[in-house]
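[#protein-structures] MJ: dropping 2-C-methyl-D-erythritol 4-phosphate cytidylyltransferase here for a structure pass
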Amino acid sequence: MSATNPEPGGRTAAVIPAAGRGVRLGPGAPKALRALGGTPMLVHAVRAMAQSRAVTLVVVVAPPDDTAVAEVQQLLADSDAIAEVLVVPGGETRQESVRAGLDALPADVDVVLVHDAARPLVPVDTVDAVAAAVRAGAPAVVPAMPVTDTVKEVGPGGEPGAPEPVLGTVDRSRLRAVQTPQGFDRDALVAAHEKTALEGDGATDDAGMVERQGHQVVLVPGHEEAFKVTRPLDLVLAEAVLARRRATSGF
Ligand SMILES: Nc1ccn([C@@H]2O[C@H](COP(=O)(O)OP(=O)(O)OP(=O)(O)O)[C@@H](O)[C@H]2O)c(=O)n1
Ligand SMILES: C[C@](O)(CO)[C@H](O)COP(=O)(O)O
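AK: finished. structure tokens for 2-C-methyl-D-erythritol 4-phosphate cytidylyltransferase:
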């Protein structure tokens, strides 16, 4: 399918799914509300989006209960973040949460960036590069990094924890690990989400759904600091990166 062209004058919005529990990070508050450098991860993520001159609206998708929505609204009102921010309740899966964010977008938004709250340290240059590539006509744009480990494909295993049989070694020169924000022509993304939900399919990222509709997804360079805080060690790394940034900038 060919590239689409967002209308001149349309707005770019960021949707930030932040409704996950953070099971892999371990017990505690929902992951997006856990502190990084004394500030909730979500606030870092909102600031990263709002710093981009392309982004004029941020839709935060909070854990799906009234208390969490109110808490997130208060948190963002108290922070020095920002562009215009809306907070909506999320769903059981990341996919449902992103869909809730899309449903809240006003009519004048034609480009959407979807960004994990769990990637609090994405540099603004990466956000700008994704937004610019969508404005230039690509229907779906994803920041990506080369894969540095060798990757094996395994066959169906036996008992959990038992050694797994290797089927083969994948050519890693053709593999990329994708990050967020992923940027989209709004209509292409909304249609892909609707179709995926109707078919009862799932996808681990938004670009995967748009790919299945036949749109050409393109990659731009990602950034090593845009990593996802998933497990406890990731939080240790994020604290170190933030401390280095603060030492360098003097803030
Ligand atoms: N029902 C969900 C699940 C995830 N997310 C968001 O999607 C992003 C990526 O998800 P992930 O890193 O997997 O976060 P969690 O689901 O919180 O982590 P875990 O799977 O370890 O519980 C996060 O910003 C998370 O808050 C969401 O908005 N709604
Ligand atoms: C969207 C994503 O961050 C791209 O790498 C990733 O697929 C999210 O996966 P998760 O298991 O929901 O964290």
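MJ: nice. Residues 17-24, 31-32, 61, 90-94, 97, 116-118, 228, 230 surround cytidine-5'-triphosphate (ligand 1) (CB under 6 Å).
AK: one more thing. The two ends are 47 Å apart (CA to CA).
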